[in-house]
């Protein structure tokens, strides 16, 4: 089953780039600062825009996984209930391969793994803040350096597990917090822009086909930092050094 209409341009109905579309799923490029679901403080959410993504189906699509409000990039939507259930299983079973870009403070080694269990900071069910904890849930992140500049490093991060705030807590625990992180780093909450981007996804959704691979371009709020670290101005999915 081939995609109906892959389209990297911004969809005028929702004001967001539509990266991929087929009969089962959509992948959009979520901007930083837009929450996926309504929160206690109210305000605009992605949920408000989902009716425009029906493309002829009777029900609107739903998010198949989490993506923090302050994280930009690839977000998968299931187009109907059966598709959503299949996608949910892929993410729950760890079969969806996720790749992130981050600009971090300091100078990490060229590559490695972060194997630190994570637990909630508080017993309050409303709190999503996390901490490293030997008694917490096993959590594993793979990383490699893609470029460096003064006082910052461009990392490719691959979460093997999918814990809340995993990449942010792991990077901070290693001594190189993600730039713009006002919870786990030193950024000022009033003007911080989290330098974390869901760069790509590989989803083995169809048993007799290669996994569906989707990438999201570098977001505007990270572009200057990425260029300083060596991102080629013309880089795209076919030429980007991080995918070599």
Description:
With 244 residues, this protein is mostly beta strands. Helix content is 12%, strand content 30%. It has helices at residues 81-92, 166-173, 220-228, and strands at 10-11, 16-21, 25-30, 62-63, 72-78, 97-105, 111-115, 118-120, 130-132, 140-149, 152-159, 196-203, 212-215. Strands 1, 2, 3, 4, 5, 6, 7, 10, 11, 12 and 13 form an eleven-stranded mixed beta sheet that branches. The chain has a two-stranded antiparallel sheet with strand order 8-9. It starts with 9 loop residues before the first strand and ends in a 16-residue tail after the last helix. Mean pLDDT is 88; it is low at 1-8 and 235-244.
Note the topology.
Elements: E1 10-11, E2 16-21, E3 25-30, E4 62-63, E5 72-78, H1 81-92, E6 97-105, E7 111-115, E8 118-120, E9 130-132, E10 140-149, E11 152-159, H2 166-173, E12 196-203, E13 212-215, H3 220-228
Parallel strand pairs: 5-12
Antiparallel strand pairs: 1-2, 2-3, 3-5, 4-5, 6-11, 6-12, 7-10, 8-9, 10-11, 12-13
Number of strands: 13
Q: What would the average pLDDT be, to the nearest integer?
A: 88
**CATH arch. level architecture:** 2-Layer Sandwich
CATH topology: Pseudouridine synthase
Low-pLDDT residue spans: 1-8, 235-244
Share in helix: 10-25%
